[in-house]
Each structure stands twice: as C-alpha cells, then as structure tokens.
Specification:
By secondary structure, the protein is mainly α. Helix content is 78%, strand content 0%. The longest helix has 32 residues.
Length: 251
C-alpha cells in the first residue's frame, strides 16, 4: 500500500497545477450557469415553474458535460514523464508496469470522483431553485461524457506509447494533428452534414414528445446501469493500455 500511495502522490503532485486550473474553470462555469436562474427569479415569466425547470435542466446537463470532460481528459502526466525521461529512469525502480498502471487508474478515478461530487453538488443547488429532480440526468450525462472522453484518452495514450523521447513525441504530435485535420475534412464531405443547416430552417429540431421521451430515457435507471457497465469496461481497457505503455519501456 505504501508503494501505491507513493505513486499516486507523485502523479497527483505532478498534475496539481492542471488540476487546480480545471477546478477553477469548472467552478467559474458552474457559477456562471446560475446567472440565468437568478435572472429568472427576479423576472416575471408567463410560466415561472416551467421556465425554471428548463433552466435547471440546461444548467445540470452543461455542468455534467463540463465535469465529465475535465474528469476524463488526459492529465498530461505521460507527456511529462516522456519529456523528463522518467520512463527510462523508472527501469531501476521497484514499481512494476502493472503497479504503475494501477496507480494511473487510481489517479484517473480520483479525478472522476472529484468532479462527479462537484457536479452532484451543483445539481443539488440547481434543484433547490425549482421543484425538479435532475440527479439521475446529471449522473447519466456525467458518466456518458466520462466514457466518451476516456475513449479519446485511451487512443491518445496508446499513440503516446510509441514515443521514447521528446523528438519522437513531437513527431507523433504532428502526425496526430494532421490526421485530425484530415478527419475533419472527410467529415465535411459526408452528404447531409454540410447541407443540414439549409434544410428545414423553420422546423423545430425536436418535438416536445420526442424531448420528453429523451429526458425520460436520460434519467432512467436502466441507462445508469448500462453506462456503469460501459464505464467498467473502459476502465479495464484504460488499465491494460497503461500497463502496456509502461511495459514497452522495461528492459
């Protein structure tokens, strides 16, 4: 346990500046989302209850999206270790590749737990402004966002696995940037994406009945169970990816 505690402490210490910056951005954004609700309280809308519930729904969804994005994103530790040469130095240290991968997963879970609790706290504050429970919606949106961002982080970590020094890291970053640009260009050529904005400009994007069904599915317990299962699988894949990443640099 002392070894894992030391590894986790090391990673948290190296990423503390990024973590503090993400916390500040999250808190500022969450407080900013309170502004429309405060304005709605002082104004006199035609249907105050319905308008307030709509504001709470939007605020909870966006805060959960932001929290999930920040929690699941790459923390920059792998890049820092490659640049500093710590990966090569770690050959002579007691931790094995598996133990380092467990430490990486624990740090990721710490970020997810931290931003998850903050998202839940702000959701509770938003719910206090209206008689409208959105905890299930917040949880599912948060889990879904974390899963999606972690998939991107897994792909990024897998690519970073092939960089042994800072020069190779620069080459891989350039290749990743070029591939991203090509992907965006290809997506722009897909029929329907480019001309979507020209069709049905006056038609609503989604009907009230469809939105109600979507809202019910978003806050359903079955959705939560599915997302939890997907999250467990993604965590396993993340662990295996990081394990493989550390193994590549073992002698």
């Amino acid at each position: 346990m002392k070894l894992y505690r030391s590894l986790v402490y090391r990673e948290l210490k190296l990423t503390r500046k990024r973590c503090i910056l993400m916390l500040i951005l999250f808190l500022l954004f969450s407080l900013l989302m309170m502004t429309p609700m405060m304005l709605g309280v002082f104004s006199e809308p035609a249907d105050p209850d319905e308008d307030m519930q709509g504001l709470v729904f939007i605020a909870v969804v966006f805060v959960a999206l932001t929290g999930g994005l920040l929690a699941g994103t790459n923390n920059g530790l792998q890049k820092a270790d490659i640049s500093a040469g710590w990966k090569r130095y770690s050959f002579v240290l007691p931790p094995t590749a598996k133990q380092q991968a467990v430490s990486d997963l624990l740090v990721k879970l710490c970020y997810i737990l931290c931003f998850g609790l903050l998202s839940a706290a702000f959701a509770w504050i938003y719910n206090a402004a209206a008689d409208y429970s959105t905890f299930g919606i917040m949880l599912n949106v948060y889990l879904g966002t974390v899963c999606a961002v972690m998939l991107i982080d897994i792909a990024y970590s897998y690519i970073m696995m092939f960089a042994n020094d800072q020069n190779q890291l620069k080459i891989i970053k350039v290749l990743a940037f070029v591939c991203s640009g090509v992907l965006l260009i290809v997506l722009g050529w897909i029929p329907g994406i480019k001309n979507r904005e020209h069709s049905g400009e006056d038609a609503p994007l989604i009907s009230d009945a469809a939105f109600n069904r979507f809202e019910a599915a978003l806050g359903a317990g079955k959705t939560t169970m599915i997302l939890l299962a997907v999250f467990a699988v993604i965590c396993s894949v993340y662990f295996l990816t990081m394990w493989r990443s550390h193994e590549r640099r073992e002698p």
